[in-house]
Amino acid sequence: MTTIGFIGVGAMGRPMVERLLAAGHDVVVWGRTPEKLQPVVDAGARLAESPAALAAQADTVLGCLLDGPAIEEIYLGRLLEAARPGQLFADHGTYDPRIAEKVHAAFAEKGAHFVDAPVSGGPMGAEAGTLVCAAGGDAAAVELLRPIAAAYTGRIAHMGAAGRGLMLKLINNYHVSINFVAAAETAWLIERLGLDAQESMAILFGGFADSACLRMGLPKALAGEYEAGGMPLGGLVEVQRNIADLLESNGFASGLFPYARQVFANAAVTEADQHPSALVHWLPGVQE
């Protein structure tokens, strides 16, 4: 039985841990607030008293941390000291690719592997085991990750060296940001024009306009439902800083992204914890 350590048992991490347990893995977890880990402990996970203790028990250490500062604090500040030669570390969060390069180099000095392995598909994809994962790092390390992450992913693509998985994930979230704003604008137009909501969605979902973001954002916006469901719009605001850095560092002046980013920023002032469907309140000229 493989022992997997997991740090970052949040909206995404919890169903990932549950699927690892269902696949027969021994799972050890750690978090700053132990009571938040109780659901996965009840499901069979064991609780470690520190990140270093978790790494000492685990064959592989996985994470799904919030952002770059958390990655540096946990991996460089608390896991690196416990890393063993040949041990695999991989994080499924989204952050600055340059941080992944830094962490990869630090773990390589100890003979350990670090893979940036951001996932997309949301909590529902984690629950269904259909997440997609773009991985950056050594090819051998990615191959070590594949059979483990198969518990909650439907596809893993090795994009190349450290940081390159995150580059593709930022491109993914570039699209997500723009498309959620488009979904909010679509909802506003349907309501303004007095079009039948159900018939409108049936047509839009059946043609070239269809997308995952439209299917998630449009029905909730039309129904006035803004509960995040594990996808708060404020989480994308943080990632959008990294997207902007990626675009700027590559000399690309997007005509779409700055507008979408501003809509998110406006909404996040008071509705950061809401679903992106709440963007409908913050479109230029139609704020409520």
TrEMBL record:
Domain 6-phosphogluconate dehydrogenase NADP-binding: 3-160
Keywords: NAD, Oxidoreductase
Isomerase keyword on record: no
Record-linked InterPro entries: 6-PGluconate_DH-like_C_sf, 6PGD_dom2, 6PGDH_NADP-bd, HIBADH-like_NADP-bd, HIBADH-related, NAD(P)-bd_dom_sf
Molecular functions (GO terms): NAD binding; NADP binding; oxidoreductase activity
Domain of life: Bacteria
Domain (3-hydroxyisobutyrate dehydrogenase-like NAD-binding) ranges: 163-267
Sections of the chain in a coiled coil: none
Pfam family, any one: NAD_binding_11
Protein family according to the UniProt entry: Belongs to the HIBADH-related family.
Official protein name in the record: NAD(P)-dependent oxidoreductase
Organism: Pseudoclavibacter endophyticus
